[in-house]
Specification:
Helix 1 runs antiparallel to helix 2. The chain has one domain. It starts with a helix and ends with a helix. By secondary structure, the protein is mainly α.
Length: 152
């Protein structure tokens, strides 16, 4: 009888140990799977951040090239206008005509400069918008991630 009691006690202890071991194994496996999934999510998020920085750098380069080309084109045109105005000034027949041509050239140069400056500012503003768009999207993604993390 004592042997039967000892056998039952050993069996129930063994069963309890197996249940605890099985539950522990399941919990470890579940936590490991969650950790792997979280690591994959972090890796994906990091890759998207790097992609956003690369897209921002590409937009910046493209925009700066466009601004540079615009500046060179304006400078070239201004130089051509200056040479043309100088030639026109040399053909003046009187001081009055010289002053009128010079005033007309100064006025047209100033108006061209102001117009170019306005266009340049608008283009630079567009560049800033294009440059920061990918980064702003990532900041929004971080906000969403924080909100979903709080909700979990």
């Amino acid at each position: 009888m004592a042997t039967t009691k000892t056998a039952r006690s050993t069996k129930s202890t063994t069963d309890a140990f197996e249940q605890v071991a099985s539950a522990s194994t399941d919990a470890v496996r579940e936590n490991f799977d969650r950790g792997v999934a979280a690591f994959a999510e972090v890796s994906s998020f990091g890759k998207e951040n790097v992609d956003a920085v690369i897209a921002s750098a590409a937009a910046t380069q493209k925009g700066l090239e466009a601004l540079s080309a615009r500046t060179v084109a304006f400078s070239k045109q201004a130089m051509e206008n200056h040479v043309h105005a100088a030639k026109a000034l040399m053909t003046s027949k009187s001081v009055q005509e010289f002053v009128e041509k010079q005033n007309a050239y100064a006025k047209s140069s100033f108006e061209a400069y102001v117009a170019e400056l306005a266009g340049f500012s608008e283009q630079a503003s567009g560049l800033a918008k294009d440059m920061f768009q990918p980064l702003n999207e990532r900041v929004s993604a971080v906000g969403s991630l924080i909100q979903t993390g709080v909700a979990r």
